[in-house]
Amino acid sequence: MNPVLPPEFADLEPFADWCLHSEAERYAKRLASSMGELQSFYDAAFPRLEQILVYLDALPLDDLPDDARLLLELSYSLVNVSFPVEVWRQPRVPDSGAASMDAVVEPAV
Amino acid sequence: MAHFPKPSEGSWTEHYPELGTGPVNYEDSISPEFYELERKAIFNRTWLNVGRVEQVPRAGRYFTKELSCAGTSVIIVRDKDGGVRGFHNICRHRGNKLVWNDFPNEETSGTCRQFTCKYHGWRYDLDGSLTFVQQESEFFDLDKDDYGLVAVQTEVWEGFIFVNLDPSNTTSVKEYLGEFGAGLEGYPFGEMTQVYKYRAKVGSNWKLFIDAFAEFYHAPVLHAKQATDDESRKLQGYGFEALSYVIDGPHGMVSSWGGMAPPKDPSMVKPIENVLRSGLFGPWDRPDIAGLDPLPGAVNPARSPNWGIDSFVLFPNFMLLVWAPGWYLTYHYWPTSHNSHIFEGTLYFVPPKDATDRLRQELAAVTFKEYALQDGNTLEATQTMIESRAVTEFPLNDQEILLRHLHRTARRYVADHEKSGTPVAVPAVR
User: Is the pLDDT of residue B421 over 80?
Assistant: First the structure.
């Protein structure tokens, strides 16, 4: 598969399936993943977060090149999975049962 | 042990003696008959916030709002003169819903030069006037001036668009919002245009979810797993006490400490919060805009240096939360029956200047959803058990004063409406 992320972040290519544009896609992937899968993604991406911020902050947020935009989307996924990994120890919010909440408006980028 | 001073009467609740201190009956949250009365006495009489001016930035921009609670749907549109207008979403010809896409009961938005009915092609200008009738000569003495869209009273306060479905209403929205409205004017709402909006169907009476967000007594317990273990134990040990409560007419507010941005002890926050400098209370650093210092007078009424968030409960179904780190949040509760409603939570930030800002806001939005999912699910459990009527009266503590006030206000509106048989002067409850 062709690399999609900036070359500096080639180590995150195995997790490129977390480059998801919408909150709904990110949340669905989180719920469909095992804790092992969430932990692997977190363990790879979290230590790189500070470097990701430095890299992306040097670029204009409203005009990101494709590879940088995908890196940002991967970072949104990292934020989303931080709850299961750091706190819940399960993909779903505890005590949330069948409750669901849809993101109906979110930023374009 | 009290951490924050209470009024001289000894409690917040007794400071407002009309509230009483006895157990509260929750029949108003489980009775289908009472809900029908609320629709007439409250949702067809009071000002309802349906959106923000940023949703209609230019002439021809519009959105629809489904108001099952009032038995109608409205169109909000920016007209050619820059005004914001509201209309009942109904074609004057034979009553088809005028503006909708694919699913008649789903809200929609867009841009148009005029509204065209899908059914027979009648067209209306942005000011509501009927401009075109298909095969007009087939009609009998039809004067188009008599068949404009039915207007709904629509007013804008600080960029918030309100409608009032009572044609005889004579109270402005500014007057209706009372001292909270006056004391919030000048807050830079218009600068905070980066929006995240969540929606959920909730299986409870609309007031029960307001209850959940109008007290923080539950926070150290229900959300215990949300914090690190040390932080969680610390919070449960403290319990919760607000800085201040204020009641003004049908509205109320709670002012709370918290946020601790940045936290005094970095080990008390989650790893990603430490890296991003953000969390439930939003990004730790205030955006660099005017209007946040000093804050308008209704915010942080105790003038506490530990202030973190104010929650305004604006009757009937609109909550406005102002957070110390410089962003705001709204909640809306749209009843669909006596035991169901649609909840909307919307976060508003100053647009991010770079990816770090953007990720900080993302973390705040994701955190909001994690909490709200827990809150929402608890409500269905509450609704079904209250409906059992195995227990009918519930003791509310001093930190639950806004719940006592909300249910009392709803009962008062219904009682006043029943008594008069005619529209009550608003605000009727002072």
Answer: no
